[in-house]
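ping. complex inputs:
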Amino acid sequence: MLKLSYLEYRALRAHGEETYPHECCGALLGHATPDGNHVSQTVRAGNTRSDRAHDRYNIAPEELIKIQRHARGLGLDIVGFYHSHPDCPAQWSKTDFDEAHWVGCSYIITRVNHGKSDVTNSFLLTGMGEDDKQFIDEAVEIEMAPSQTEKAQAKG
Amino acid sequence: MDIHIPTPLRAYTGSKQTVNVTGATVGQVLQQLTDSYPELRQHLYTPEGKLRSFVNIYLNDDDIRYLPGKESTPIEESDELTIIPSIAGGRYF
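pong. complex structure:
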């Protein structure tokens, strides 16, 4: 199961709306746990596929390295990525699969329907490598931040 | 020098995020890395010994594919090597 906060969930969905009708992309930073990937932070990335940004995305390796350094500085790992499908289902495509190489990582896809994010799904890339990799549906748990009332009650 | 290992390849480095190796060139340190962790080789290279197309290796901020000396490029202890698989996709075939 993938866990992320409501704040980060909202942030990645908002990113897809901002770049619509183009695809957005970014990385998920956090920790891999026995229960699944736990996201602490999302990081926006630029889509270098300016030639086909409406149906393709690519994160420059140079930017990935910067993101990895940033994660390392925070004591976090890259545990996944997100991107949007403008006016297309929140399901992985053949291109998504062919270009997926981060085994053990979560791939979040959000459908942005006429400019509005609606469905968000996550897929875990499993296997030992290119020969047997596969995407499996992954449940997503959205962690809600405590309300002001709950915070006040916790303080006593 | 340190070689930073990405999340999906740590299964082959005993969960190590960073591996310290010694060598005079990029090729030598990569050879030492795959000698120390033989299972890693097939994930980095094709059976013909070429770096897989989706695997990027950077010496500091430079892609080793585009270095004039490529894997013969000399390195210093303070340099760092980063292995980073590509990330891409898109909604249609």
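The CA atoms of residues 25 and 83 of chain A lie 4 Å apart.
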